[in-house]
Design goal:
- The complex is a heterodimer of chains A (about 250) and B (about 170).
- By secondary structure, chain A is of the alpha+beta class.
- Chain A has seven helices and eleven strands.
- A three-stranded mixed beta sheet of chain A has the order 10-3-11. In chain A, strands 1-2 form a two-stranded antiparallel ribbon.
- Helix content of chain B is about 50%, strand content about 0%.
- The chains are: A alpha+beta (about 250), B mainly alpha (about 170).
- The interface between A and B is medium-sized, with 31 and 21 residues.
């Protein structure tokens, strides 16, 4: 896609997002509006819409090197972490990882959380032979494990090593996060929570620890906390050279 | 093809019938061997819901078509983020699991439990519970006063109506 058509696309999306906000806003008095909050609960019988795009901004300057609150929160929420006793460390599920990067020249090291970046054009979706790997209308990239045949092409295609494969029979899964042997899985951006109007478990845990390194919200809503934060200060997408337009963005690296 | 004499034809017929006659003899005389499946009884699954508490559709409908409701809900939830609870598999589990003597929930896919008992009778292998939770984890949302009010109209989502109608036509 050319640069100009991308811009046109973005403009159209902005227009649509605004139209969505206008439609969801209630006029209280002339000139006064009660706009819908970014994470307002969608009615359960309403499908997700492309008027929103969920994203996370990771401020790595606020990440402590010894903190793994987001990782353990994800483990607890989604029931991975200790569920595969016979798998090696490389084989075990890793929906979110704590990664330390180091500048070899200066020795400066930094720890950051690494998970599915929820790309706008996800390579994992491109390569999936069955259509199991898909991008939901609101930008969340998921695996439909009913269709996944466990070929693991998506794991190869993902530049972020975000996906993992379940090698063992599992028991006592969480009802909101079904996982099973022979399928690929990754961060779901806690879609079960987001659909209820809540924020992902990692983001919640981070602010509960008073680090506030993670901001979750709607990238298309210019009044959302994440959009304001992205506008105010510089941030990057990892491997921006690939042009994937990730939903997860980083600051301070 | 060569012509067979009448005698050899009779002999051949006798040879063919011999095993049948022998079986009949042994049946009358000795221990009667059980026919395959003759000891089969229709399993009575463990249940823990009350008689007043209705399933989400009439029982006859659920016996026949429960898989269609679950399949439809599955795609709606995974791909479109629709989280209505009425046909959610989790609510099936919430209602149909039983507790053991110690008051602990028994996994719904255990041999004598609701799902497995009937599926084994019908020789249906399902793999829902390789991934999905087999015990209730959070309380059901189907029996709250609001949900009962919503369900009392017995409304089916239009999508499911269409789905069932189109499948009916296909058959």
């Amino acid at each position: 896609m050319s640069e100009s058509s991308k811009l046109a696309d973005a403009a159209r999306r902005n227009f649509l997002a605004k139209a969505g906000v206008a439609a969801g806003a209630a006029a209280v008095a002339p000139g006064v509006f009660l706009s819908t909050s970014p994470a307002q609960a969608r009615p359960a019988d309403e499908p997700v819409s492309s008027a929103k795009r969920w994203g996370i901004l990771v401020d790595t300057t606020k990440c402590a090197s010894d903190c793994s609150a987001c990782v353990s929160a994800c483990e607890n929420e989604n029931g991975w972490g200790s569920s595969e006793p016979n798998s090696s460390a490389e084989q075990k599920a890793h929906w979110i990882r704590s990664v330390t990067i180091k500048n070899k020249a200066t020795g400066f090291a930094k720890t950051l959380p690494m998970m599915c970046q929820h790309c706008e054009t996800p390579p994992c979706v491109d390569v999936c032979p069955t259509g199991a790997s898909f991008r939901r209308a609101d930008g969340i990239v998921l695996v439909d494990k009913h269709i996944c045949i466990g070929c693991r092409y998506c794991m190869m295609a993902c530049p972020y090593k975000a996906r993992s494969f379940v090698h063992e029979d599992l028991h006592d899964q969480k009802p909101w996060a079904p996982r099973g042997k022979g399928t690929v899985e990754s961060c779901t951006l806690c879609d079960h929570r987001v659909d209820k109007g809540e924020i992902p478990a990692c983001v919640e845990a981070c602010s509960a620890d008073n680090h506030n390194a993670l901001i979750f919200g709607d990238l298309y809503d210019e009044n959302s906390e994440i959009s304001k934060a992205l506008k105010a200060k510089d941030s990057v997408e990892l491997r921006a050279d690939l042009g994937l337009n990730t939903g997860v963005r980083y600051r301070g690296i | 093809m060569t012509q067979c004499s009448p005698i050899s034809r009779v002999l051949a017929l006798l040879l063919l019938l011999l095993p049948l006659v022998a079986t009949a003899d042994s049946d009358q005389g000795g221990e009667k061997e059980a026919l395959p499946f003759s000891d089969l009884t229709f399993p009575e699954p463990a249940r823990h819901y009350s008689a007043e508490q209705k399933c989400v559709q009439p029982v006859e409908e659920m016996r026949k078509n429960h898989m269609k409701y679950i399949l439809h809900q599955r795609d709606e939830t995974v791909h479109r983020g629709i989280r209505t609870r009425r046909y959610a598999l989790e609510e099936c589990v919430n209602c149909h699991t039983a507790k053991d003597d110690e008051g602990e929930y028994v996994p719904i896919n255990a041999p004598d439990q609701f799902c497995y008992s009937c599926h084994s009778y019908a020789s249906v292998k399902i793999d829902c519970f390789q991934c999905h939770a087999t015990k209730p984890v959070r309380p059901s949302t189907l029996n709250t006063p609001e949900s009962n009010a919503a369900n009392s109209t017995e409304k089916l989502s239009n999508d499911i109506r269409q789905l069932l109608a189109s499948e009916g036509q296909a058959q």
